[in-house]
Specification:
The structure is a single chain. 54% of the residues are buried. The radius of gyration is 21 Å and the shape is globular. It is mainly alpha-helical and 426 residues long. The protein has one domain (3-418). 80% of the residues lie in helices and 0% in strands. The two termini are 25 Å apart. Helix 2 runs parallel beside helix 5 and helix 7 (140-162) packs antiparallel against helix 8 (172-196).
């Protein structure tokens, strides 16, 4: 759960601190935070292909093939990180200028990204290591990494945003720098652990790196639809916040508070979703195809139960939970009306995301992409109509997430049940 939510945790921490600075900073971190999550999700989605391939090799007991898969993944991920870093450094100002009308929010977004963009290299290399350890079902190191990252990011955020402990007062730019430095330090934990971990010798990780273009081509074939799924999904969320920005600073600030709460309660589900990728691929590697739907269903039930237990806090202590995003009492009061909508969204998300990732775990990534495109097209049309054409309330706009997950759940269950994935090779 923790490893799958590292970027969520970073964005959440940034939001918690910047929500105490002002509406501009809170609005900006919502937009640029979602943008960076979209960039980070490209690397994470690419790593999913490697995770599925590693789990398949573990299931079929071909451990010596894991090393070449890992190094091929790493080489491509770092190359991709360089391309996206250059885009953020030289193209982000133009990109944000196309969407953001408020000049103060625009300036704050660029200030954050100027520092945050350097973290993309640590992020992409890190998710490849997460994919390796999740694929072999040995995830303890991910906890160590996330704990270090969380502690360092919290300390540096406090110091660099507010100018404490001798640090310069940098505001939102300090949040970007803090997140990048904390990712770098946390990545060093991965490196130390990998060198210390003797079991890695079984996977051929200490042999001279061999970059296999055939493996990269297979990874690209498998991962390209996953990456596009992520871009389409996160891109639609970015567009949602851009449209909400047109409703006003207050509506954008409220949405960012709810986004912070949403990110928090997403954490259990992303963990189960990552696990079901490994479980499904491992079962197929063992030729236990008949168990795939059953395991996915059991995982969905477990995920729903855990998510709803966590979400009880939103009903019992809404004022306290909403303080994650801000300490402004007026914004908290106005955000209360969205708690019921968010709970309903979480209920559907906790089941829909599991079945969707069970589908991805089978290797049916092209089919999963098509299903997601259907969901996103409806999502964007709905948002545009209710906000721009009808002028509905913020609650009605947020219901887009609810309908999105209804469609995603229905289509994913249908495809898994149809068993059309059984002949896919990865």
């Amino acid at each position: 759960m923790i490893g799958s939510a590292v970027q969520n945790l970073i964005t959440l921490t940034d939001t918690i601190f910047l929500g105490r600075v002002g509406k501009i900073e809170l609005g900006a971190i919502g937009l640029v935070g979602v943008f960076y999550l979209m960039i980070a999700s490209i690397g994470y989605s690419f790593s999913k292909a490697g995770q599925i391939m590693v789990a398949r090799r573990v299931g079929s007991k071909k451990l010596d093939e894991i090393g070449p898969i890992y190094y091929s993944m790493l080489a491509f991920a770092l190359s991709l990180a360089l391309v996206l870093f250059l885009f953020m450094q030289f193209g982000a100002s133009f990109f944000f200028g196309l969407f953001i009308n408020n000049k103060d929010i625009y300036t704050a977004c660029i200030a954050y990204l100027d520092y945050r963009s350097f973290g993309i290299f640590f992020s992409y290399a890190g998710v490849i290591i997460v994919a390796l350890y999740t694929g072999v079902a040995r995830t303890q190191v991910i906890i160590y990494n996330a704990v270090v990252l969380g502690i360092v990011n919290t300390i540096l955020n406090y110091g660099l945003i507010y100018g404490k402990w001798g640090f310069p007062e940098m505001g939102i730019a300090g949040a970007g720098l803090a997140s990048t430095v904390s990712e770098g330090i946390a990545f060093s934990v991965f490196i130390v652990y990998m060198v210390w971990d003797k079991k890695n010798r079984l996977y051929g990780l200490f042999k001279f790196p061999r970059i296999d273009l055939t493996i990269i081509k297979l990874q690209l074939k498998l991962s390209t639809p996953i990456v596009l799924q992520s871009v389409v999904g996160m891109g639609s969320w970015f567009i949602f916040f851009v449209i909400v920005e047109d409703m006003g600073e207050t509506e954008l600030a409220i949405s960012n508070i709810m986004r912070a709460v949403y990110l928090l309660f997403m954490i259990p589900c992303w963990g189960f979703a990552s696990s079901v990728n490994t479980l499904v691929s491992n079962l197929i590697g063992k030729n236990k195809l008949e168990e795939v739907f059953w395991v996915t269903t059991q995982t969905a039930i477990l995920c729903f139960s855990v998510t709803m237990i966590c979400a009880l806090a939103l009903f019992l202590f809404p004022d306290i939970i909403l303080r994650i995003g801000t300490d402004n009492p007026d914004l908290i009061e106005q955000s209360l009306r969205l708690t019921g909508v968010l709970t309903a969204i979480l209920a559907l998300f906790s089941v829909g995301a599991i079945f969707f990732n069970g589908l991805v775990g089978t290797g049916a990534t092209n089919q999963a992409l098509m299903l997601q495109i259907v969901c996103v097209v409806f999502y964007l049309i709905y948002i545009y109509v209710v906000v721009h054409l009808i002028g509905c309330s913020l609650e009605t706009a947020w219901m887009a997430e609810f309908y999105y997950w209804i469609i995603s759940l229905a289509t994913s269950v249908w495809y898994l049940w149809s068993a059309r994935w059984k002949n896919i090779k990865v």
